[in-house]
Design a protein that fits this description.
The complex is a heterodimer of chains A (about 475) and B (about 400). Chain A contains 17 helices and 17 strands. With about 475 residues, chain A is of the alpha/beta class. Chain A folds into 3 domains: about 60 residues, 3-methyladenine DNA Glycosylase II, Chain A, domain 3 (Orthogonal Bundle); about 260 residues, TIM Barrel (Alpha-Beta Barrel); about 120 residues, 3-Layer(aba) Sandwich (Rossmann fold). In chain A, strands 10-9-8-7-6-3-12-11 form an 8-stranded parallel sheet. In chain A, helix 15 crosses helix 16. The longest helix of chain A is centred in the middle third of the chain and has 17 residues. Chain B is built from 14 helices and 10 strands. Chain B has one domain: TIM Barrel (Alpha-Beta Barrel), CATH 3.20.20. In chain B, helix 5 runs parallel beside helix 6, helix 6 packs across helix 7 and helix 12 runs parallel beside helix 13. Chain B starts with a helix and ends in an 8-residue tail after the last helix. Classes of the chains: A alpha/beta (about 475), B alpha/beta (about 400). Chains A and B meet through helix 7, helix 8, helix 9, helix 10 and helix 11 of A and helix 1, helix 10, helix 12, helix 13 and helix 14 of B.
């Protein structure tokens, strides 16, 4: 019963050379790369997958393939949930901190439905979950799953609700009950849905394991505030043959929140830094437990608590969340936070260059420019919007770099600005030829005037002063 | 108003929560008979039975829970964050009711299994010395005091439980009212008399004017241990530090989201001030508007500090009010996104809890509901009370 605690090198410690040594070294270019070393580098950066090397998939290279797969697999196993073609992947994390290596698979958010809700309510919640959509920096932020809870503990009722949900949505499901008979009733009407089974406990684990094997489903383990039990069940279920696990150490809202965060943190560190394979699975958080805390208070209080509890769990390693609230103000900050936490911290985020109109600009409206670094752009855009001034904003391609750095690094030049003016055909839209440039690009003013033929007005160094600037300088000019 | 009811509900919620008593968690029972059976099951004699059941492998399935151990994954950190005291009592040379110490961490934020933070993070409420445009959901809580910083500070302390006050002297801005240093210092004195919490003195962002005002304010508030917010790279650092040192204040070292710049500025400050008088601010961006950068810079700064980087071993401060720069916080949106009376403060709250987990020690905030929530979260995280698994044991079947 000795436990395996082999220290696997972290993703940062694997060098392309280690990978290269195991590759066929034929430089056949079938992967599209110049040579095997280039392929190895991209493998280490997770830009390409092993399967993109055809020779490696041949029988004679089976051993090397397996070795490489072991070497490159993430310490947090990636689990697929849902029917074929509608799966969602959770986990698959390589690191603890987002600055070490981009987080994979953004936290999946599920909304709950119970088997005692009316048909109308079930349909409404499905609709809300499916249709939730918010456009943010060019991405559509969405909800991902439906969690069906049996509050009745009645297999027939659960069966009816699961059937209804399956008939009305293709979203991946989580089936929730601690009673295996109830769960089986649900699985019977969704035999191919491959839902996440929630959950195996110290009491029901064997029956749940049988269901997971029979229906080929991933299985969650629920061991609130007891990592030792969680590990024991993980070990037992792996031995039992259930390979795809999800771990729930318990989302204790209210006073228990310290221990909840502590457990999530310990588990993720044990898996990513100490090579603990029994804990190397996705974590599920249940902010819905905020609703158990204050049953006598109005719904807004539970919604409020659920909202920030979800945020804390997104920050602290949750790969999956079950929420009850469908209110926009609860969900919006969380999908935006998830988007923020899961961006690649190594890459500057850029927006599309080109012209943007604010309000209803006319031929005398001011024309300003900024760079396409997303953060810069959205700050400037928000400041212009706040000012409520009809205007044009030209977004110049600075390769996603902020104004001051782009000027210093020659990513933003007078020629680029002149070209952008031409491409956007601004001269057809306004009858003046005055360009307001960022204060931090002041040193380019002479060059811009020369390259573009436009008169330059140096704007404020901070976009929050744009309203004042326009008021004082533009209206008088 | 919904907001008011809501605030009362938070208080009710807190009362309700404190009523719960901890209940001991039942441990897993091991059935040794079962375990032995499992241990023997690898022996070939039991195989025929296993074959009848047609298992996927020849290995028999466990029939009882296989026990595994768990050891907390503790790490050692060579570094520690310095402690910085803000405010001074009579004994300490000032007039504050109490002083507050922040920092001193030996572990990453709220790694409670290692070393819990020795000092809880604190919240300073923003007060402005002149009327400024505020988001509506914020403004409604301060309507009567918008032109009176003294009344504003009292409201923030008495009603909204501010640990500290950040007095933003924005009227000194040459482009606003160009208030003189003497006049600004008078406002500071008035606020000092009205409340007894430690003060942060905020400038207007003009490095020359801020310096003149800091020098005057430092003098009239000698011994009060203000936090001068902030010292920047383009300021005459020697003069700013001299004012802080002579009159016993702390400074906020502010840099724009760049660890190297943060190190560089701190290094320059060390020539004139002890480390224990420096707090740093690496810039807070709003949720959705760069919070990812702010979060990661702070997380990296704190981890580096613990790993021994001496130039980052300072408590961190966050201008969390910046959350209101997000249009999702203040704007009227389609009804499906809910009223901004909720959306705004939850935006500030989510920004705050995220940065709390990155290591912020001092929050400068605005909305009373966000302040109340963050206080609750900090209190619970630092209470040392054990989790309450029994309360969530049956969450699956609970009707909501």
């Amino acid at each position: 019963m000795a436990e395996k605690e082999v220290k696997k090198p972290s993703i940062k410690e694997i060098s392309p050379i280690d990978v290269y040594m195991l590759l066929p070294k034929t430089n056949c270019k079938e992967c599209g790369e110049e040579n095997c070393m280039a392929f190895a580098t991209k493998l280490v950066n997770r830009e390409l997958a092993l399967e993109q090397c055809p020779p490696l998939l041949k029988k004679e290279n089976e051993k090397a393939y397996k070795q490489l797969w072991e070497m490159l697999k993430p310490p947090i196993k990636e689990i697929s949930i849902g029917a074929e073609k509608q799966t969602i992947k959770v986990g698959g994390k390589y690191v603890m901190y987002r600055h070490e290596f981009t987080y994979t698979n953004p936290t999946a958010i599920a909304i709950d439905i119970t088997d005692e809700m009316s048909d109308e309510e079930v349909m409404e919640r499905i609709k809300k979950t499916q249709e939730f959509s918010y456009i943010y920096i060019g991405n559509t932020l969405k909800l991902n799953m439906i969690a069906i809870r049996s509050t009745s503990n009645d297999p027939d009722k659960f069966k009816t609700t699961v059937k209804k949900v399956v008939e009305n949505t293709t979203l991946p499901l989580i089936l929730c009950s601690f009673d295996s008979k109830v769960l089986e009733a649900g699985l019977m009407v969704a035999p191919k849905a491959r839902p996440l089974i929630y959950a195996a406990t110290k009491d029901n684990w064997k029956d749940m394991a049988e269901l997971a094997l029979m229906y080929n489903c991933p299985l969650a383990i629920f061991a609130p505030n007891n990592i030792k039990l969680l590990r024991s069940l993980s070990k037992t279920l792996l031995e039992y043959g259930v390979k795809n696990l999800v771990l729930d150490p318990g989302t204790m809202a209210g006073e228990g929140i310290g221990d909840a965060i502590n457990n999530f943190t310990m588990i993720r560190r044990a898996a990513t830094k100490k090579g603990d394979e029994l804990l190397g699975f996705p974590l599920i958080g249940t902010p819905i437990t905020a609703w158990l805390e204050n049953k006598d208070s109005p719904a807004e209080v539970a919604q409020w608590n659920e909202a920030y509890l979800a945020a804390i769990l997104i920050d602290r390693y949750a790969d999956l969340l079950i929420l009850h609230s469908t209110e926009g103000w609860v969900l919006l900050p969380n999908v935006v936070l998830r988007q923020n936490i899961y961006t690649d911290p190594r890459k500057p985020v850029a927006v599309k260059p080109g012209m943007r109109a604010f309000g209803t600009p006319h031929e005398n409206s001011p024309v300003m420019f900024t760079t396409n670094f997303a953060l810069t752009y959205y700050t400037v855009a928000s400041d212009i919007e706040n000012a409520g001034v009809d205007s044009y904003l030209l977004v110049v391609d600075s390769e996603g770099i902020a104004v001051d750095c782009a000027v210093a690094g020659r990513k933003l030049t007078a020629d680029k600005v002149a070209e952008a003016i031409k491409e956007a055909k601004i001269e057809e839209k306004v009858k003046h030829k005055k360009l307001i440039i960022p204060g931090k690009a002041a040193r380019l003013s002479g060059e811009i005037e020369e390259a573009s033929g436009w008169e330059v007005m140096v704007g404020p160094r901070d976009s929050s002063d744009i309203p004042k600037f326009l008021h004082e300088k533009w209206n008088q000019s | 108003m919904a907001e008011k009811e809501n605030k009362e509900d938070f208080l009710n919620l807190l009362n309700l929560l404190t009523k719960f008593q901890e209940i001991e968690l039942e441990d897993v029972e091991m059935e040794f008979g079962d375990l032995e059976l499992w241990l023997q099951s690898g022996i070939p004699t039991v195989l025929p039975k296993a074959k009848r059941l047609a298992p996927p492998s020849l290995k028999a399935k466990p029939t009882s829970i296989l026990q595994a151990r768990f050891t907390s994954p503790i790490e050692e950190y060579p570094g520690q964050v310095v402690e910085v005291r803000l405010g001074a009592t009579k004994n300490e040379g000032g007039t504050r009711g109490k002083s507050i110490t922040i920092g001193g961490e030996k572990s990453p934020p709220f790694y409670l299994f290692e070393t819990p933070p020795p000092n809880p993070p604190i919240i300073s409420l923003d007060v402005f010395d002149t009327k400024i445009p505020l988001a509506k959901p914020v403004k409604m809580h301060f309507n009567e005091v918008l032109e009176d910083p003294v009344a504003w500070a009292k409201l923030a302390v008495d009603k909204y439980g501010a640990d500290m006050i950040t007095l933003h002297l924005i009227s000194i801005d040459p482009l606003v009212k160009d208030t003189s240093p003497v006049e600004a210092a008078r406002t500071v004195e008035q606020v000092l008399q009205a409340v007894d919490v430690p003060l942060v003195i905020g400038g207007c962002g003009d490095p020359k004017k801020d310096l003149e005002v800091f020098e005057k304010v430092a003098e009239v508030g000698a011994g009060e241990r203000f936090l001068l917010s902030s010292v920047t790279q383009d300021m005459d650092i020697e003069r700013a530090c001299a004012a802080a040192k002579k009159h016993g204040h702390a400074v906020l070292s502010f840099t724009p989201m760049d660890l190297n710049q943060a190190r560089q500025l701190n290094r320059r400050l060390y020539d004139f001030l002890p480390k224990e008088q420096i707090i740093m601010d690496t810039t807070t961006a709003a949720l959705g508007y760069g919070l990812d950068y702010a979060f990661t810079i702070m997380e990296r700064a704190r981890l580096a500090a613990l790993m021994g980087d001496p130039e980052l071993q300072h408590p961190m401060s966050s201008g969390t009010t910046n959350a209101w720069a997000a249009r999702e916080a203040w704007k009227k949106m389609d009804p499906q996104w809910g009223s901004r009376e909720f959306r705004g403060p939850i935006w500030e709250t989510v920004t705050a809890v995220t940065l709390l987990l990155a290591g912020v020690d001092l929050f400068m905030m605005m909305h009373p509901a966000a302040v109340k929530t963050l206080k609750d979260v900090i209190m619970r995280l630092t209470s040392g009370k054990p989790g309450t698994p029994e309360k969530i044991a049956n969450w699956v079947t609970t009707k909501i």
